[in-house]
Amino acid sequence: MDAKPSVVFVCVANSFRSQMAEGAARRIAGDSWEIWSAGSSPSGRVHSHAIALMKEVGIDLSAHQSKGLDTLPQRQWDYVVTMGCGDNCPSLRAKKRVDWQIPDPAGLSIEDARKLRDRILQDVEKLLKSGRKECNTA
Predict the structure, then answer these.
(1) Are 50 and 20 in contact (CB under 8 A)?
(2) Lower Cβ count inside 10 Å, N or C end of the chain?
(3) In this predicted model, what pLDDT tens digit does every residue of 89-137 receive, in sequence order?
(4) Cα–Cα distance measured from residue 1 to residue 121, given in angstroms and rounded to the nearest whole number
(5) 74/101 Cα distance (integer angstroms)
(6) What domains lie within the chain, and their CATH numbers?
(7) Of the listed 25, 80, 83, 89, which one is catalytic?
(8) Is 11 marked active-site?
């Protein structure tokens, strides 16, 4: 049996963008992927707007915790997705790296943050569909 493909979503605080991506990926992929998120400087909490925005689409982040890179399994990831954090995103071992260049929604209006959420949902779905195909042919 093939191993599950793996993805980790990384941003600075692991409180908004990467948490939304992790929640979306878990909803879309179920347990067919190994899915994580982490931050280079975790805030210790998930932003209340991230929780509210994901609740709007039926994804519950209320039990999520902001995590640091030291909580990640030491491994080579199939995908490392950085969320627009530039030099603040660490280098993790990965078969493929993707940077989505998503601005930090923490200071945005709820309407603008909602647009970023919708973009993250779309990007996660595309990644999981294409990534599954790539991992099965590798």
Answers:
(1) yes
(2) N
(3) 767 899 999 999 999 888 899 999 999 999 999 999 999 998 766 665 5
(4) 29
(5) 25
(6) 6-132 (3.40.50.2300)
(7) 89
(8) yes
Whole-angstrom CA distances from 93 to 7, 79, 81 are 11, 9, 12
Distance of CA 7 to the CA centre of its chain: 8
Q: Is 85 a catalytic residue?
A: yes
What secondary structure does DSSP assign to 24-64, as a single string? Answer: HHHHHHTTSSEEEEEESS--SS--HHHHHHHHHTT---TT-
**Tokens 């990384």 correspond to what residue?**
10
Residue 1: pLDDT band (50, 70, 90) is: very low
Q: Which two tokens stand for residue 119?
A: 């973009």
Among candidate residues 8, 10, 11, 51, the one labeled active-site is 11
Question: What's this model's pTM, rounded to 2 decimal places?
Answer: 0.92
Pairing outcome for strands 34-39 and 94-99:
unpaired
Active site residue 135: no
For the beta sheet containing 34-39, the strands, ordered from the edge strand earlier in sequence to the opposite edge, are: 34-39, 6-11, 77-82, 94-99
